Amino acid sequence: MKSGRTSAARAPAIAPFYPVERAYDDMFTAEGTLRPHYRQLHGRMSALSAAELADRQRTLEQSFLLQGITFTVYGGGEATERIIPTDLFPRIIPATEWALIEKGLTQRLRALNAFLADVYGGQKILADGVLPRDLVLGAASYRREMQGIYVPYDAYVNVSGADLIRGEDGGFFVLEDNLRVPSGVSYMLANREAAKRTFPEIFRSARVRPVERYPDLLLAALKSLAPEWRPDPQIVVLTPGVFNSAYYEHAYLARLMGVPLVEGRDLVVHDNIVHMRTTSGLRAVDVIYRRVDDDFIDPLTFRRDSILGAAGLFNAYRAGNVVIANAPGTGVADDKAVYAYVPDIIHYYLGEDPVLPNVKTFLCRNPVELNHVLANLDKLVVKAVGASGGYGMLVGPHATLAERRAFAQRLKADPTNYIAQPTIHLSTAPCLVEGRIEPRHVDLRPFLLAGSKITVVPGALTRVALRRGSLVVNSSQGGGSKDTWVLAGSEAKP
Question: What is the dihedral of CA 64, 67, 71, 77, to 10 degrees?
Fold first, then answer.
């Protein structure tokens, strides 16, 4: 394997080489050959000077700032609002690869919704011993209050954002399922608009599948959950408020769908009917797209100290007078320990082999696997089963000896709270970094909608680890994003 590529035909003019890494690269093969679907974009990249690239990058960032496309990072006792770092070069996925992703994610969501319907119903999968009963019913995200509640179409998960990664051979794996209140779709839409302005000629000729209809698809999925006798159901987006890290996205989606954005204080429950306050009086609400965590949606049922939800909301839900999307309790299906059993869940409910495989996962609750993890902390990534956003994890190869020793004590003290996985060499994609085009590690977050049917949006949020060598793509941990072009037709070649 070569250590770099210096041919003018292979590398952008502004970079003396495009380093080869062990990981799969989206643009080049391991032998240094340009992949066909990147040919036109590579040619355009090579023709632009460093100054032109920097100018386009500045324009993109200014556009995000003016639109208020921001997120909030918490830490050190204070919150900082930032624009999400965005790379101007789109990631390109051929139609054949996307067809496999679409099939695999649809299969996975069907199985996970069936699992949730069973867990909150007859619990046959637990009686049959496919999963340990205590692992499911003892999970922090399991909600016994959901037992026996009717959920339209058994679609407990209405909006999901699976995290996919490529192996070294280019094949896709599912890293996480994100079934609670997944975020990032607004950045997918904003990145698309930015990429169309940055490379308008290439975009027009590339036959890129559109993502702009996402708000319409989301609204249709939410409306399909309402009772049939409500021909024009009232939909609202429930946000924790302006101080939430994803508030921009909540407001953005509500505006694009043309529905009210409400906080818990805007809702009132009378006789198990949810109403929202308006200037013309109370108006009944049929479907709530909630962006508030389970614990906070109703202080009468969950956390008593919550001021983010509405008192009595869950009783109205239990009575069938309002639909909450995603349903409370969906987190039990994306618990990182349950993740290890998803292939078994697919077999159990669908009688099929998984289209998209899992990453090898060690359950620290198992003493043999715990010993293996403790002996190999320098090679593994260890995660808390209920954490998200890159928090509560140890990346062994990048941790110090002191950090690994401290984490080992946490593992021994509470092994059921952790899983471990091999350190994956995330695939790379070309990014503009300080005037040079270099590979950076990426993952992929496609979005799925489920109501009366399942829809996989033909695009995704590609998250980027902007620091050289970093494998952490979360925006809260210094990562960025880029647009994702899913090509229409097997021979589309931008």
Answer: 110
Give the tens place of pLDDT for each residue, 116-157: 999 999 999 999 999 999 999 999 999 999 999 999 999 999
What are the pLDDT digits (tens) for 438-458? 899 999 999 999 999 999 999
Burial string for 117-149 (b: 16+ CB within 10 Å, else e) reads bbbbeeeebbeeeebbeebbeebebbbebbeeb
DSSP 156: -
Cα–Cα distance between 388 and 183 in angstroms, integer? 12
Is CATH 1.20.1250.20 correct for 362-422? Answer: no
Distance from the Cα of residue 386 to its chain's centroid = 15
Using DSSP's 3-state secondary structure scheme, residue 27 falls into: coil
Strand 163-166, strand 172-176: pairing = antiparallel
Give the whole-angstrom CA distance, residue 273 versus residue 286.
9
pTM above 0.85, yes or no: yes
- Cis bond before residue 326 (omega within 30° of 0): yes
pLDDT at 12: 42
Helices within 332-473 (DSSP H only): 336-339, 342-350, 367-375, 401-413
Residue spans per domain, the chain: 362-422
